[in-house]
Amino acid sequence: MEPVIRTVAFVRNERREMTDDNWDDFVSTIELADDVPNSALRGLEEFSHVEIVFFASLAENVPPGPWHRHPRGNEEWPDVGIFAQRNKDRPNRLMLSVVAIERVDKRSLVVRGLDAINDTQVLDIKPVYSWSGPRSELRVAKWSEELGENYF
Description:
The chain contains one helix and eight strands. By secondary structure, the chain is mainly beta. The strands form two sheets. A six-stranded antiparallel barrel has the order 1-2-7-6-3-8. A two-stranded antiparallel sheet has the order 4-5.
C-alpha cells in the first residue's frame, strides 16, 4: 500500500527564506486547510506545545541529495549520515518541530519556534504530552549542541 498524505493546514509567517537560525523571532499561524473542520482544533487550548509535521517543499530529495555530509557544510563537524541530522534535505522532505502554542483560534493555531517558511504544507499537528518525550536522559553529539546555539 502506498502512503497517502494530505495537507491539513498551511504555515503563514513572515519568513520567506530558508535560513537556519533565529526561528523564535517569528510567530507562525497554522491555518487549517479548507476541507478540515474547525472541530479538529478542539481541546488544543489545554496544551502548551504541539508537534508540527510538515513538508519541506523547497528542499532536495535524498537521493539525489547527499546521504551523508558535514552539517551545514562545516568541516569542523563530522561527516555524518542524513539520519544523524535534522536538516531539510531528507529522503522524504518530512520535518518535525515542537513549538509553543501562543493561542488557538477558530480555524488556526498561533505558535512560536516553528522552523518552516511561509506557505509550508502542514501534514499533522500532535499535542505534546508530559510522557511523550524522552523517558531517559538525552544524549546528543557535541557538534549538534554547537549547531543549535542560535537555531531558536
